[in-house]
Design goal:
The complex is a heterodimer of chains A (334) and B (304).
Chain A lengths: L9 H7 L3 H41 L13 H8 L1 H32 L7 H12 L2 H12 L4 H21 L4 H7 L12 H26 L3 H9 L4 H12 L1 H15 L2 H9 L10 H10 L3 H34 L1
Chain B lengths: L2 H19 L2 H30 L3 H7 L1 H4 L18 H9 L1 H34 L5 H13 L2 H14 L7 H8 L3 H11 L3 H9 L4 H12 L1 H16 L3 H6 L8 H11 L4 H18 L1 H13 L2
Helix pairs in contact in B: 1-2, 2-16, 6-9, 6-10, 6-13, 10-13, 10-17, 11-12, 13-17, 15-16
Classes of the chains: A mainly alpha (334), B mainly alpha (304).
């Protein structure tokens, strides 16, 4: 996923030094010294704020609640057996499994729709990226207007149901009686019911499609137009060009879009918290909710164990992605 | 809300089939219609909010009693206020001292964090992008891992340190961890990597040292990446919710993002106006630095 480019201006270094061998060694050392000089302030902070305390987290995950005697893997067994943890983990996985493909697909479709090589259609792009910069806290009231019990969504559904009901009853000869009944059909409080899950997905996609859109657009712009021209000359249709030029050309972008979408998906807690509070409907009780409850009760031991499990999951995902990439590179070479 | 999304899907799928039968012009028109429909999905909620922010209190209570938590009457939404008035904004800006405190808190927590991200993160990104040194790969992997891990994972670690240093329940509890966020380093690294080698060669030939090369070539050439990192950092920190909930107990220290959701109960009349004022800084910054943002994000994504 990340490829490093070393400093390549050894030519200029050669002009400044003496014997070749000593010089090569000297350059490497000088490079390393300069690099550490630039890196040190950042690395020091990362070590102090994350790495060292994380060592403590690892240690605590194997100790009892008082932090004195070792209990082996008992904490892990306890956390994995915890019903709240299971619910949160299942919901989080379910959210990721639904949201990530949907977000990638929607943002990609939007990118194809909006992309223009001549740079026109900027208004669309600006508009679609805008939700990304809008603070969640500022949008909460609007979401409430739409999704609350007597909100816009229910009004709209009742209106369509009413229209359909009227169309149906006028044929059957029955008068207003049927229509009155259907108007009460939709009165669920979306946010505090099982429907909270799709709502969270809608708000997540509303907010995050713009960022991915920008990444896809950058990827599309980097594919040479001459490829498309050549394909057109060869008689390739729109579908074939998408399949054989656009998609392969975007394979590099895909990885980054996926990673950043995962990063952003945990921030959906903000929407969930602001819309439904810290004890939401069961269907949207996710890992962040669980952690904030553990945090409120200062359940350090569980938090440490849970963190370790999440890191393990992240490392496993990274390993799987790396393996998949190796395999695909291998098959490509053959 | 989800129907128009479906509309995109079907339009995308139908396109090849339809294309044969349609003229180029009709095709372009169809595209404009679909684009406009999608954009409406973004604009309608925002317009709803803008309209509500100009409604006097009685109209607001008449229309939005239920979302504001003051009653249970059907929502009567409107894209224009029937009796538009600047009253909510005047009320908010002149007679709500609480709002000022929270706005100021947000600034105190966000701006130093951004300055720190620039001071600490830009050199680190420069090291990752332009030098080769032992342990570079594992270190960069660590940075990316920290960037990917959700806040909840590092929350305990951060909490333990902040507790040890007695920074809990102060602005520093939000500022310090944000300064060493690794996402800005990642974005800036990708941007610095796109600087052509020749540019730096020239600088070294002219006798520039490592620091001078960074300050006079690196920073100006990597400008889009720096702006992108700072803008995304601003948006994220301005939005911060998990951190203040976890680290700030005293309500006087709360940022806007935590104060705003509660404002409806306190003073329903200014809730929408407060939302508009809160979204102004990030929206204006975005509109002003849009081209840098696009370049910076492009640099982060295209290279492989």
């Amino acid at each position: 996923m990340i490829k490093m480019s070393g400093r390549k201006h050894t030519g200029s270094e050669l002009l400044r030094g003496g014997g070749l061998r000593r010089q090569k060694h000297g350059i490497r050392r000088r490079q390393a010294r300069a690099a550490w000089f630039f890196l040190a302030p950042s690395l020091a902070g990362v070590v102090v704020f994350t790495a060292v305390p994380f060592g403590d987290v690892i240690r605590r995950s194997f100790l009892d609640a008082m932090g004195r005697t070792g209990v082996g893997l008992a904490n892990y067994a306890a956390v994995c057996g915890n019903t709240a943890f299971r619910l949160a983990a299942v919901n989080t996985v379910r959210f990721l499994a639904v949201c990530l493909p949907l977000l990638l697909f929607v943002s990609f479709a939007l990118a194809l729709l909006v992309f223009r090589r001549d740079g026109r259609g900027n208004l669309y792009k600006t508009t679609l990226v805008l939700p990304m910069v809008i603070p969640v806290a500022a949008m909460v009231l609007v979401w409430k207007i739409i999704f609350c019990q007597d909100g816009l969504l229910n009004e709209f559904l009742n209106w369509t149901a009413g229209m359909a009901g009227r169309a149906g009853t006028s044929g059957g000869g029955e008068a207003a009686g049927g229509a009155v009944q259907v108007t009460k059909l939709w009165s669920s409080d979306w946010v505090n019911s099982g429907a909270a899950f799709p709502i969270l997905i809608v708000t997540y996609i509303w907010k995050n499609a713009g960022y991915d859109l920008m990444l896809w657009l950058a990827g599309l712009a980097s594919i040479s137009e001459s490829l498309y021209d050549a394909a057109r000359v060869d008689g390739a249709g729109a579908w074939a060009r998408l399949r054989y030029i656009t998609l392969p050309g975007l394979s590099g972008t895909f990885g980054l879009v996926l990673i950043l979408s995962v990063v952003n998906s945990f921030r959906v807690y903000r929407e969930a918290y602001l819309l439904a509070g810290s004890y939401p409907d069961m269907s949207i009780y996710m890992i962040p909710h669980l952690f904030s409850h553990w945090f409120l009760t200062l359940d350090v031991q569980n938090m440490c164990t849970g963190s370790m499990l999440l890191v393990a999951a992240a490392l496993a995902a990274a390993g799987a992605a790396g393996a998949a990439r190796l395999i695909s590179m291998h098959t490509k070479r053959r | 809300m989800r129907d128009p999304d479906k509309a995109i899907f079907t339009a995308e799928k139908k396109e090849p089939a339809v294309r044969g039968g349609l003229t180029r012009r009709a095709h372009a028109r169809l595209r404009v219609i679909v684009c406009a429909a999608v954009c409406l999905l973004v604009w309608l909620p925002l317009l709803l909010m803008l309209a509500a922010s100009f409604m006097p209190e009685d109209e607001l209570l008449y229309r939005y009693a239920e979302p504001l938590g003051t009653g249970r009457e059907p929502v009567r939404a409107a894209l224009l206020a029937s009796y538009p008035s600047p009253q909510p904004f005047l009320e908010l800006l002149l007679r709500s001292p609480g709002f000022y405190i929270m706005f100021w808190n947000s600034c105190i927590q966000v701006l130093p964090a951004l300055a720190g991200q620039l001071l600490v993160g830009a050199p680190a990104a420069w090291a990752f992008a332009r030098y080769s040194f032992p342990a570079k790969k594992p270190l960069f992997f660590l940075y990316v891992l920290l960037m990917v891990l959700p806040f909840q994972v590092t929350q305990v670690s951060n909490y333990l340190v902040l507790d040890r240093l007695h920074f809990l329940d102060s602005h520093l509890a939000l500022i310090l961890p944000a300064v060493w966020a690794t996402f800005p380093v990642f974005i800036m690294t990708r941007s610095f990597e796109t600087i052509p080698d020749a540019l730096l060669e020239a600088a070294y030939l002219d006798g520039a040292g490592e620091l001078r090369a960074f300050l006079h070539v690196g920073l100006p050439s990597g400008y889009p990446g720096i702006v992108t990192a700072l803008l995304l950092g601003f948006i994220d920190n301005w939005n911060a919710l998990e951190q203040p909930v976890a680290y700030l107990k005293r309500a006087v220290l709360w940022p806007l993002s935590l104060y705003l959701p509660g404002i409806a109960q306190e003073k329903a009349s200014v809730a929408f106006a407060a939302g508009i004022v809160m979204m102004m800084p990030p929206v204006l910054l975005y509109l002003n630095s849009q081209s840098e943002l696009e370049q910076g994000i492009a640099a982060s994504g295209v290279k492989e």
